[in-house]
Structures are given as C-alpha cells and as structure tokens.
C-alpha cells in the first residue's frame, strides 16, 4: 500500500482481519495522547503567559501534571514541581511526595541539557515509604565510553549501584536501574573534554509490592555490616525469595553477595531459579554458585552463568548461594537473578494421616497440582482438617462442589482458613464459615440463556496455604453429612495473573509475563464438576508488541461431534449448531471488541493448526457444559515488532507502507491489525492520496479510512475489553 501526502491534519486507520520474545521488566512510561511537542508540552504557543497575562504566545501544557517554564523558556512546559529546572536540569532533588502532590504523578522524565565536559551533575531521589527508585536510561551522548573492560572518560552511576556509559547510544530497551535506599543519587560524571554531553531517562517511584518491578527479597534478613549478605532461617514456614541487588534492574559491578539458607532440622531444600540473566560469556567473573553447606569451602553443587536457569534440591540443614559480578559490560543488557526457596520436611507425604482419628489430610502442591476430595466413604471423625500447602509462589483455590450439613443450630460447620490452620501461632483469617443446617447438592444445570454466567462457589488463599475444617458435634459420623470439593494450586509466574473474584480467569502481560508459553484447558482442574463452567485467559500486549495464539493440536471427543460443527473461512471459524452455544463444550479465540475470530466445537481437527495475531488484547474462552472437556492444546507468544503502532509526520510528501503479514502465512492464520498515521501540516494545503494494494478481499476483511483530524479529537482513544 502506498500513500502520498500533501496535506492538512488527517488520520488514516488501516484495519486487517484476514488470512494470513525476555526476562527484563520495567514500568511502562510513555508520552500520552495529549502531548504533541514533548512529555509535558501540548503546543509551543497558544496559551496565556504566566509572566504576562496579556500575551498568548506561551506554551500550552498537558492538563494533567504539566506546568509552564515561565519567562526562562516560554515555549516549553515541565512537570509541575520541576518547572524551576527548565533551563538547568542539573543538581536537583526529586521528592516523590512533592511531585505527587503538585503533578499527581509519581513518575516523569529527566532530559539533561547539553553540557560541556568535564563536568558533573547529580539527581537526588527521595521515595515515599513502600517505594523504590526506578530509572530507565534511553539515550547517552558523550558520557564516556566502554573500552571493553570498563567505563572510562565518564559515566552515569546510581550511587552504590550500577554504572553505564556510551559515546552515542540509543537503547531500544532501556537500561533499568533500581535503588532501595531511603535516598538515591544518580551522578553524571564527565572527566574529559566534550562539546555536548547529555542523557535522556525516565524515572518512577515504583511500589515495592509490585509483582513486576517491586522489591523481590522475602523471608530473610540482611547480615549486619555487610552490603548484600543475607540469612534465611525459616523457609519451612515462610515464603523465601532470593535476588541479586537492584533486581530486576542492572546489578552493580565487582560485588560478591552470599545468601545462607538454614534450618534447625534436616529438610529437603529446593532452590528454583525463576530468572537468571548475567553478563554473557563472562562466566569467570559473573556467576551464581551453590554450595552444600554454610561456606564456599563446602561442596559446590552447581555454578550457573549466562542465562542458565534450573532447580537444585539438597537434603540437609544449610545451603549457601554465592553471587559474584565482574566489571560493567556494554551493552548493559543483564539484570541478575531471582530464585525461590522451598523447605520440606523429609516425611511430608501427600494424603498422610496426621491424627489418630485418621481423617486429617495434607495435600502437597509440589506433588499434586489439582484434584478432588469427598468425605463420603472415608474414615469419619468429629473434626477433620484438610491442609492444602502449595509451592512458594502458589495460591490455593477450592470449589465447594456439594455439601450437606443436616444437624441443627450450627452443630456441623465448614470453616475455611487462609494461610494455615486454627490453633497455629499465626495471624489467620477465617475466609468462610458455613453453619448447619444447609445443603448444596450438585444438580444438572437448567439453561436460561437470558441469565449472565455466574461463578461457582469458590474460595482462594492470599498465600500458599489454605485449610478446610469440617466439624461435627452432633455425634453423627456417617456419610449423611459430607463435603465435596475440588482444589488447585496456582503459580502466577506459570499460569498468568489470576483475576480477583474469579475461579479461573487469568491475565498474561507482554511486559511481565513469560514471552512464550503452552496452554491447556484450565477447566480440566474441575473434572468432577458437572455444572456449566467458563474460564478466560487474557493476553495483553504492550506498546509495539503483538500477541500470537496458536491452536496446534487436539483430540475430539466422539460423543460431541454430532451436536456441533466447526466451519472456517475468510472471516474466521464459527461453531454451527442447532443448540445454544452454552449447552455445548467449545473454545473461542476473541479479539477487540468482543469479536469472536475462532470458535471450535465438535470435530475441528481438520482445521488445525489455527493462528490469530493481534496488536490489541486477545483472550481464549474455554466453556464446558458437560463432563467431557475439549482436549485442546494451544500456545501463546508475545512479539516485539513495528508492523503497527501510531505515527505522526510533518513531511509534505512520502510513502506509508503497511507490513505484509501474509507473505509467510500458513493456512487458517488470522490477524487483526489497526494502524493510525497522522499527517500534519501547519497550513491548509491540497491533499493527494494514492492508494495501492494487492488485497482482493471484501471490506469485512480489510479497509482503509481517511478522515479529517482536529487537535481536540483523540484518534488513539482506548477500547474496553471484556
């Protein structure tokens, strides 16, 4: 497609819906749709001057957080609270509380002015309680150079942390630095003669509780008079996480940190590395070593370097992890490691009896990730405890399928406890108490298609442990009173971020989730539930990302073939049946806005593989109405690309070319692409647009829209997704 431009304000929206990879994270900060000139400036002129109310030749600022630079720079705005530094952004203090109060923003931009070396500038950051300082470096001009061994001539250094340098560098992905001190100072030091030294960075006062950019260390304490030595003494009862300094940002050079894991009894210690990304091909200087004892003279179990992730199991009372780094190495694309520790007693067995009565049960999430339990037909007792204990990053989820509490006046009780069992020395939370008489019995669902889907009765823990207590005080211990439940353990790092108040809906984010993964039907975890159940897996790409969902195999259940058929064509795959779709087991792949691109039911194997690619959120919806699930397997992948995105140009003529996604396409590959180009002219001109395309599909498959655009309009208005 070719578009030639001579024009007024114009927006071109190109939409396609036809045939047809990282361990580093940071806070997404981007220029909003309000900003046209820079981060805080909408336009250079057009608004009243703060120093001269009779003049309207001053900059118009972004309404949320932008303030005029005043007479010093009348055509520019800055973040409110920093406007006094417009002409000299050097030797400044950025206080989280003050910035939030004045600009309603806990993030912003540092664009240093061009300075002549040798010189030095500092930037002092003061985070609020519960925050850590995050810096994202995007551009370096004449700030030293890397000689292959270290930085020389100048550098940027976060005090006590990492150091970077470069003579003329643009980072496609930012170099990310973190500090967890009460105050953090970034220093720009130039030790040689330069004509123009400058850098561009974003900053954020990030929450320490964030799952992606927060402070990851858990369960240990720092050893006095050391920089980064830690001791972990209670990983049997506490979730323990180890991480390199400043994780998930660039780690400091030339450091050595030790993490000692101790127990007062012999345990099975599992050390699982969730992330490991060290300076590549520098295994002599940058590594993680694991020792079977308290010192580096103990037997070495393993030495890891580069991006070699693995799990290590050691039976004993002590394990030492040593992290060592060498000199800073360009291009500064490493961020250390994160690992979880799980201690297990040597006699921990799934289903082991822990009381003389014989009805208590402990379910170990390391050995059983999901299952079902029914008290009927089991040994009975006045009080039974069912303890579900997961892995370190797990949360526990249960569905109460059916129960019958027939005794009067709350003499039979079901209690659900978060993070342990009653009687333990913990601050426990009683999630739910169900008193007799009450009954919930599993029955076939009567379909009422006007009703919205409602979640089944389910409960979730906030940590890795949950306990169900079944008490009977009416001296009846037969099967007349019972409880039946399904359970599963969920690890956010493996299975996406679970949506609150949902049984099984999860979200995968392009910036924080694994870039690739395999997907199976999540409903199989509830195999004993005959009622209608629905699960969604949402995939949310970041800016300049797309997401690809692929269904590449599946086994059709013969009994479901007759009630529904899958038919595929130019506009997607559809489920064809005389019945309502809620009455049929099916899978849907959906794009914006609630547009079903692929629906699979019945006999669909001949259409596989099927792929959908989108630049906006997609989701897979799994639905079951009967006891047999569709045995579908799928995969997802987040891709960094520039096929799409939003672009603006002031050139009087040029060519805009959309990427050809169909050149290497496979059969039954669908994609949805929406691109916007804004052609900006400061004066009215005649516009000529020539369009050339080899597409021969109808408008329902692709279309091009050309319309006038005004500054008050917002062509990038977001769309809500279900």
TrEMBL record:
One of its GO terms (cellular component) is plasma membrane. It comes from the Eukaryota. Gene3D superfamilies: Spermadhesin, CUB domain. Keywords: Disulfide bond, Signal. Residues 228-344 form the CUB domain. Residues 1-22 form the signal peptide. The keyword Calcium does not apply. This is Similar to DMBT1: Deleted in malignant brain tumors 1 protein (Homo sapiens). It comes from Cotesia congregata (Parasitoid wasp). The lineage of its organism: Eukaryota, Metazoa, Ecdysozoa, Arthropoda, Hexapoda.
């Amino acid at each position: 497609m070719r578009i030639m431009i001579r024009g007024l304000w114009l927006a071109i929206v190109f939409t396609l819906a036809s045939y047809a990879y990282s361990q580093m994270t940071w806070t997404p900060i981007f220029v909003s749709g309000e900003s046209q000139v820079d981060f805080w400036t909408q336009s250079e002129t057009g608004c009243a001057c703060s120093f001269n109310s009779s003049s309207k030749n001053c900059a118009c600022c972004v309404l949320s957080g932008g303030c005029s630079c005043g007479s010093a720079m009348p055509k520019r705005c800055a973040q409110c609270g920093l406007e006094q530094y417009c002409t000299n952004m050097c030797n400044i203090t950025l206080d989280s509380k003050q910035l939030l109060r004045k600009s309603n923003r806990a993030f912003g931009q540092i664009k240093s002015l061009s300075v002549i070396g040798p010189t030095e500038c500092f930037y002092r950051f003061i985070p609020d309680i519960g925050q850590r300082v995050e810096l994202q470096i995007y551009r370096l001009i004449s700030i030293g150079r890397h000689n292959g061994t270290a930085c020389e001539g100048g550098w940027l250094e976060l005090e006590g942390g990492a150091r970077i340098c470069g003579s003329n560098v643009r980072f496609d992905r930012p170099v990310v630095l973190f500090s967890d001190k009460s105050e953090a100072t970034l220093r720009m030091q130039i030790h040689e003669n330069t004509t123009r030294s400058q850098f561009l960075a974003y900053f954020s006062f990030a929450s320490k509780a964030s799952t992606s950019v927060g402070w990851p260390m858990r369960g240990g304490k720092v050893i006095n008079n050391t920089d980064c030595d830690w001791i972990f003494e209670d990983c049997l009862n506490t979730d323990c996480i180890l991480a390199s300094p400043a994780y998930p940002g660039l780690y400091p050079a030339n450091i050595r940190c030790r993490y000692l894991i101790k127990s007062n009894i012999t345990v099975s210690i599992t050390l699982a590395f969730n992330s490991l990304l060290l300076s590549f091909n520098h295994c002599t200087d940058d590594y993680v070593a694991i020792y079977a004892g308290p010192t580096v003279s103990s037997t070495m179990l393993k030495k890891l370097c580069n991006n070699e992730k693995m799990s290590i199991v050691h039976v004993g009372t002590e394990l030492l992890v040593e992290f060592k780094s060498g000199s800073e190495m360009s291009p500064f694309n490493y961020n250390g490691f994160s690992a979880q520790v799980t201690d297990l007693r040597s006699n921990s067995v799934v289903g082991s009896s822990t009381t003389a009565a014989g009805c208590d049960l402990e379910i170990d999430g390391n050995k059983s990730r999901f299952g079902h339990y029914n008290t009927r037909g089991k040994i009975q007792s006045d009080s039974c405890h069912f303890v579900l204990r997961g892995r370190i990053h797990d949360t526990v989820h249960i569905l109460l399928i059916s129960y019958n509490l027939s005794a009067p006046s709350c003499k039979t009780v079901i209690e659900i406890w978060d993070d342990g069992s009653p009687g333990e020395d913990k601050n426990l939370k009683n999630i739910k108490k169900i008193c007799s008489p009450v009954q919930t019995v599993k029955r076939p669902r009567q379909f009422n298609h006007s009703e919205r889907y409602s979640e089944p009765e389910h409960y979730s823990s906030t940590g890795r442990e949950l306990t169900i207590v079944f008490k009977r005080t009416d001296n009846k211990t037969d099967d007349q009173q019972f409880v039946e439940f399904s359970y599963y353990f969920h690890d956010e790092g493996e299975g996406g971020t679970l949506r609150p108040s949902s049984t099984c809906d999860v979200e995968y984010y392009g910036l924080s989730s694994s870039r690739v993964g395999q997907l199976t039907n999540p409903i199989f975890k509830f195999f004993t539930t005959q009622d209608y159940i629905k699960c969604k897996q949402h995939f949310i790409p970041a800016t300049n990302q797309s997401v690809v969902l692929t269904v590449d195999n599946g086994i059709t259940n013969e009994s479901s073939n007759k009630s529904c058929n899958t038919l595929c064509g130019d506009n997607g795959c559809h489920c064809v049946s005389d019945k309502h779709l809620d009455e049929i087991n099916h899978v849907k792949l959906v794009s914006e806005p609630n547009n079903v691109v692929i629906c699979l039911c019945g006999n669909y194997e001949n259409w596989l593989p099927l792929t959908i690619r989108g630049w906006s959120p997609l989701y897979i919806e799994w639905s079951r109405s009967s006891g047999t699930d569709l045995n579908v397997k799928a995969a997802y992948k987040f891709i960094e690309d520039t096929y799409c995105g939003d672009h603006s140009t002031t050139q009087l003529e040029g060519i805009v070319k959309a990427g050809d996604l169909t050149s290497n396409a496979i059969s039954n590959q669908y994609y949805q692409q929406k691109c916007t180009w804004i052609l900006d002219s400061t004066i009215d001109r005649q516009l000529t647009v020539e369009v050339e395309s080899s597409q021969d599909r109808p408008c329902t498959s692709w279309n091009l829209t050309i319309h006038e655009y005004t500054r008050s309009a917002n062509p990038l208005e977001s769309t809500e997704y279900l």
